[in-house]
């Protein structure tokens, strides 16, 4: 059996999407495969491959009266142990949600990434959606019981084009969006050479008074709607700049353009939690040379990144 899910980029409503703001989300062309092969071993062998087909993680799991355990807990690194524990958590919750005993038979589970793991495009969310497809369970529930988050990444994993996403209490609203800018040739995605730590921004965001947060949610949702309808680059850039200013105030962090790209002529928008992974840049001319001179080698045009 073979399953597939797309990667994700959150274009608007970072942080605010947690509280019900409407977000514009774009699935990426590249994602992750899951191959599942049934056997009679009574074990689950887990193999994870990167975009070059190289194994970056593997382990074997068994189940006894105390639960699911790794068969190779000795002689493996602390990092591998951490990943093994995450796999155990996913398998445990997936078994409970599906009502199945996966160890009654046995399986070889193999994941295949199409993008670099450090890019933050959804190694975890694509896995959760693929596991959910395999076992016919609700991916949002499995996500909530494992990694947590707003769920926009699951919506992207399942999407075949641009979507808007809202979370209202325990309900996820994912709708197809007509977002398809005529100026997409002026949009680029730049990798910032570091993984983001979202805790600081979320902590500041959570400190806001409820009334301030409600105003932010309304403003961000309005920007999402305006961006979707946008017909020219100048208006698009203006909306991105307004959005950046709103979030900067809410999370009390400097804008990435101010911090790193102050001399850039176009707009630069953080994607997802501030501080790392990808940013979206808009420019009338190809900005690849500009970013590379600053040490940012990964510059991907919209047409090559977005589904």
From TrEMBL:
<dbReference type="InterPro" id="IPR014721">
    <property type="entry name" value="Ribsml_uS5_D2-typ_fold_subgr"/>
</dbReference>
<protein>
    <recommendedName>
        <fullName>GHMP kinase</fullName>
    </recommendedName>
</protein>
<dbReference type="InterPro" id="IPR020568">
    <property type="entry name" value="Ribosomal_Su5_D2-typ_SF"/>
</dbReference>
<dbReference type="InterPro" id="IPR047765">
    <property type="entry name" value="GHMP_GYDIA-like"/>
</dbReference>
């Amino acid at each position: 059996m073979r399953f597939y899910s797309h990667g994700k980029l959150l274009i608007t409503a970072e942080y605010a999407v947690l509280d019900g703001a409407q977000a514009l989300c774009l699935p990426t062309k590249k994602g992750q495969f899951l191959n599942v092969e049934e056997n009679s071993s009574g074990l689950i062998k887990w193999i994870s491959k990167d975009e070059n087909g190289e194994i970056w993680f593997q382990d074997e799991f068994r189940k006894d009266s105390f639960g699911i355990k790794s068969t190779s807990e000795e002689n493996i690194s602390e990092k591998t142990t951490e990943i093994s524990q995450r796999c155990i958590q996913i398998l445990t919750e997936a078994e409970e949600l599906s009502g199945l005993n996966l160890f009654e038979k046995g399986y070889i589970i193999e994941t295949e990434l199409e993008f670099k793991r450090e890019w933050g495009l959804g190694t975890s969310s694509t896995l959760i959606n693929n596991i959910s497809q395999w076992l016919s369970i609700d991916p949002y529930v499995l996500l909530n019981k494992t990694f947590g988050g707003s769920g926009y990444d699951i919506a992207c994993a399942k999407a075949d084009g641009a979507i808007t996403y809202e979370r209202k209490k325990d309900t996820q609203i994912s709708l197809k969006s007509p977002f398809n800018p005529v100026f997409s040739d002026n949009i680029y995605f730049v990798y910032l050479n570091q993984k983001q730590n979202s805790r600081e921004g979320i902590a500041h965001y959570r400190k806001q008074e409820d009334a301030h947060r409600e105003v932010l949610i309304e403003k961000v949702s309005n920007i999402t709607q305006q961006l979707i309808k946008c017909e020219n680059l100048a208006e698009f850039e203006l909306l991105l700049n307004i959005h950046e200013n709103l979030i900067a105030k809410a999370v009390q962090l400097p804008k990435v353009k101010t911090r790193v790209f102050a001399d850039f002529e176009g707009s630069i928008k953080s994607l997802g939690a501030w501080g790392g992974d990808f940013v979206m840049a808009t420019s009338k001319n190809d900005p690849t040379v500009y970013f590379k001179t600053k040490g940012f080698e990964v510059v991907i045009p919209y047409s090559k990144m977005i589904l």
